[in-house]
Amino acid sequence: MIVLKDKISKLSTNLSQIDEIKGRSLWHDAKIRFLKNKAALISLITLLLVLLFSFIGSVFAVWSNEEIDWSVLGDISTMGYPSFKTGHYFGTDELGRDLYSRVIQGTKISLMVGIIGALIAVIVGTIYGAVAGYFGGKIDSIMMRIVDILMSIPYMFVLILLLVIFGRSIFMLFVGIGLVSWLDMARIVRGQTLSIKKKEYVEAAITIGVSHFTIIRRHIIPNLLGVVAVYATLLVPGMILTESFISFLGLGVQEPNTSWGALISEGAGTMRYGTLWQLLFPLFFFVVTLFSLFFIGDGLRDALDPKDR
Amino acid sequence: MGNLYSLGGNMKKIISIFFALFLSLTFATNVFAAKHPITGETLAADQTFTYWALDEHSSIDPQIVEDVSGSDIIRDLFEGLLNQDADGNLVPGVAESWSANDSKDVYTFNLRKNAKWSNGDAVTAHDFVYAWQRAVDPATASPYSWFMDIMSIKNGGEAISGDVPPSDLGVKALDDYTFQVELTASLPYFAAMTTHATTFPTHKATIEKYGSDWTKPGNMVSNGAYALTEHVINERLVRERNPLYWNNENTILEKVVALVIPDENQGLTRYLAGELDKGPVPSGQFKKLKAEYPDEATSFPRLCNYYYTFNLSDSGIDAFQDVRVRKAMAYAIDRNVITEDILQAGQIPAYTFTPGATAGFDVPKVAFGKMTQAERDSKAIELMEAAGYGKDNPLSFTMIYNTSEGHKKIATVMAQMWKQKLGINATMENMEWKTFLDIRSKQDFEIARGAWCGDYNEASTFLDLLTTPSGYNDGKYSNAAVDQLMTEAKTLNDASSNYTTIERILASEMPVIPIYHYAGVFMLNTQLKGWPYGNVEQNWYSRNFYKVAD
Amino acid sequence: MIKFTLKRLSIAIPTILILIIISFLLMYSAPGGPFTSERPLPEQVLKNINAKYGLDQPMYKQMFNYVKSIVTEFDFGPSFRYKDRSVNDIIAQGFPVTLKYGTWSFIIAVLFGVSLGIIAAIKQNTFLDYFAVGFSISAQVLPNFVMAPILVLIFTLYLGWLPGGGWEGGKIQFVIMPVIALSTSYLASIARLTRSSMLEVLNSNFIRTARSKGLPKYKIILSHALKPTLLPVISYLGPAFVGMITGSVVIDMFFSTGGIGLHFVNGALNRDYSTIMGITILVGCLTITFNLLVDILYAWIDPKIRYDS
Asked: pLDDT tens digits for B204-220?
């Protein structure tokens, strides 16, 4: 018996060593496969270009994002159109402020919102969902009821209270977004985990006494990454737009700073009044980013698919 | 009828077709023949007035209503003692005539005998007694019960506080058609106050039967020219001609529909698509719409002001205690840019707190109002330097406003003007409405947006705001001379010189920065006639409207 | 499964109670109250109003009375904002609206989304795939507050085919635009989740085995691949369905549909405590119900899933 036990424990160390090696090669393989995926690669480059634009674009700006061009104010639809001569490459907004500078500044905020929101969703949502699904029973039940409650409480009051208690800041904006972004992710991950944990390899790992934490880390999460990657990219546009709502309540971005969500909604409001560029420029950046994210998400999914190994 | 039923199916069909044809013919000829009885204009076949409402009204219970959109509906559904005509003059409503005693503290109204409720009951003085008692009854908990108090009705305030029962209110029915009110003080304009919805009669039996459900279509019994037929919250409210209204024969519009469209741009689109007869003009679009639709885009001055108030209480910042800083900031605002380039709809640049359109108020030529903007700017720089601020020692503060596209624009422009001219760093901070109100009323701000619409057409409705005891004085400005002049004004027959003096004091102390005075703007279908442009309070009655044919 | 369902339903009651308590605390700590206005009411008037609505009592008592009247009379109290109407009236009028356009949006989003996703996965990296992916992304990139006014411009102002808003009891011509605007973004998410999940399933061992046995492709997909494909999609659909039938503030605002989506946001802005509570409880009940349904569906799809630990 003792010998047998010994053997098993040896086997399990061996197994986890193999796992270790495989684990590394998983990421390595993924990288190679991702780089082979043309659409994903182009998208990644596009996204980096957008990012780059948000950092160096302001070098070419003639106007700052808050300066009002008094000469066009009052007659935006005939004077504020995009033009190199006036230095308003993207035209001006309703107040005669340079849209080029505003888009650059809005891009920074919105990308940050999208990335941080997605990170919170991926990290918190994945761990939470995996733990709930893996342990099941009472733990699952309690954890998921907490999600049910968080999904139903009047979110606006949470935001209003955040504003009143902590004052406004960009940091509080991320808290506001982070609070909700992970909920759906947690539910999806937990659902997948319920199914994965009944797979043979997980059951085998449990039998040979691999620790719960290791199983979640080595077996559950890698198998979740595909759906997590896709869902995370789906979440981003929603969060970028949610930002403008949070700012509406007074939390988050304040004038003269702006964001894609704010620019798009302003542009949409005036699209009939002969100032269509106010909608099209911010929308263009938003759309390009979304397309890129979608293909990156898909590329990641394909690259991370453990069965393709 | 028996004969008809015995006829064969075909025959029945033929008869019904014939009938329908006959009806439609008579109807059609009637319509085409329809002319306005006085002007002789040809009337449109469809006499439906559909108008845009930004928000759902809070109530259509006359004693409870507190907002303008609710009052607009109530003026159609109910009729009070007196009405206003197109110029705001008093005209008889349910009361045919009224009189006051010499000391103007007892008013007697003689009611018409042909006024009826929509269920056929006669409208009597008892209905008014019931409604007025209901308005002050603490159990009704009307947010507008204070209106009965400022009407100075005997025992009004006491009844609201529950010190005396509502039945002790100083109103009584001398007989079925004579209604008498006893006041605690002489009030020359008392009769005019009975055009307000809070004083409209309500039908006791209906309210007792249905409780708070009495305002639902089907339950509601009302005495106005129209009766409620449909109401869906946040979507629509429909009222149709009430044939039992005493003056029904002179009503031309058949149906009035209020559509709630919470987005102005969407409202305008639907107006242009022909779904509305009266629609909104989104902020900054008036000039263009006026050029394109000159007969439809309408603008007129309103009794409202728009200002920023300094927090002068202890919680405010020290810099604003310095009158030079306050003046410099007020001077540096180019109001013409705001009214002509941003608002663009006939708003008036404001250098006084009270709008010039207010009756009996001479706009004083305050010093900074007479200057050119260039003069004001150089004066502002001078004052700011004298106060010890400049490019190297910039003044910084936070300005708060409630979330709205329009407020945002004005705040942005103001902040830029201050920054460029005076080197001031103003941080803009928007908040949703209730948070904003809470923060402002607690003096938890440095400088805040404010606006005020007159309750009545007299300067005190504005200037009271800046007196020490006023509950609306969020900036906590306090000046004994202003308080004294305002107290004195209440007893004077003509207080206009007091008001002018106060405005001069305000211009020299600048507790608030007046920005502009409002204009009302809307799009109105040219087919719709009878809009009371001359009524500054914009109290309109649908029964005075009619639609002419194209 | 019956035992599990009963157990979950019994947890639902304490969950709702916790939801009520949290929401009460949140609402009452937010600045301002239902009767805060630009013109503060005279003290005595405010006192009368507070007494009428029971706001003069300590909070625990208000909460107790509130729960009591729901349990004993199913009465959610009067609206603090629309003073002639009760919360029961508001929900009875507003919920059928959102239920109708939400259900239609759901049906369309699921039908099109799932089919597009499956087609894209089966025909991976072909023209059909790109078309399906392109279509679903395009459907998502226009935020609904841009889509809604564009729809109205096209179908109402330019073509004159559809009324620009309103509901009129839900006649078809009033339902079309809200359904288009609401379903598109969900459609895109569903399509993409389905596609990635399907790809993952098609790569798994048991499908490979089935293929190597020479089973026809459509048979493999319908009888083997479809069920596991839907697992992550269903996790997403539970909360998505609740979100759709409880309406969207954008839809209710732009199309003046009078649904509870706008009531919920307005209720929070107006501090209409009773309306907020009523809708929160409705959302809570729906969330719990549909998440339970999702869990039951899981067990049906993957019979190995067990909810005990």
From this structure: 999 999 988 999 999 99
Q: How far is A222 from chain C, CA to nearest CA, in Å?
A: 13
Chain C residues within an 8 Å CB radius of A275: none
SS (H, E, C) B15-48: HHHHHHHHHHHHHHHHHHHCECCCCCCEECCCCE
Of C15, C146, C298, the CB nearest to A145: C15
CB contact at 8 A, B94 and B167: no
**Number of Cβ within a 10 Å radius of residue A45:** 11
Q: How far is CA B174 from CA B64, B79, B110, B128, B529, in A?
A: 26, 20, 10, 12, 40
What is the rounded CA–CA span in Å between residue B386 and residue A300? Answer: 64
Closest CA to B98 of B73, B128, B118, B75: B128
Q: What is the model's pTM? A: 0.87
* B339 Cβ contact partners less than 8 Å away, ≥ 6 residues apart: B347, B348, B349, B516
Complex confidence, ipTM = 0.88
Question: CA B395 to CA B389: how far, in whole Å?
Answer: 6
Nearest-CA distance C300 → chain A (Å): 12
Residue window 130-189, chain A: list those with CB within 8 Å of chain C: 135-141, 144-145, 148-149, 151-154, 156-158, 160-161, 164, 183-184, 187-188
Closest chain C C-alpha to B465 CA, distance in angstroms:
10
Nearby residues of A27 by Cβ (< 8 Å), 6 or more positions away: none
3-class secondary-structure state, position B181? strand
Contacts with B1 (C-beta within 8 Å, 6 or more apart), sequence order:
none
- What's the full length of chain B, in residues? 550
Q: How far apart, in whole angstroms, are the C-alpha atoms of residue B174 and residue B172?
A: 6
- Residue whose pair of structure tokens reads 């066009």 in the numeric block: A72
The identity of residue A235, as a single letter, is L
Contact state of B432 with A160 under an 8 Å Cβ cutoff: yes
What's the pLDDT tens digit per position in C98-149? 999 999 999 999 999 999 998 888 887 788 888 888 887 777 778 888 888 8
CB contacts of A72 in chain B (<8 Å) are none
The pairing of beta strand B226-232 with beta strand B236-241: antiparallel
Whole-angstrom distance, CA of residue C152 vs CA of residue B269: 8
Mutate to test the interface with C, among B55, B68, B77, B234 (most CBs of C within 10 A): B234
Report yes or no: B265 at the C interface, CB cutoff 8 Å: yes
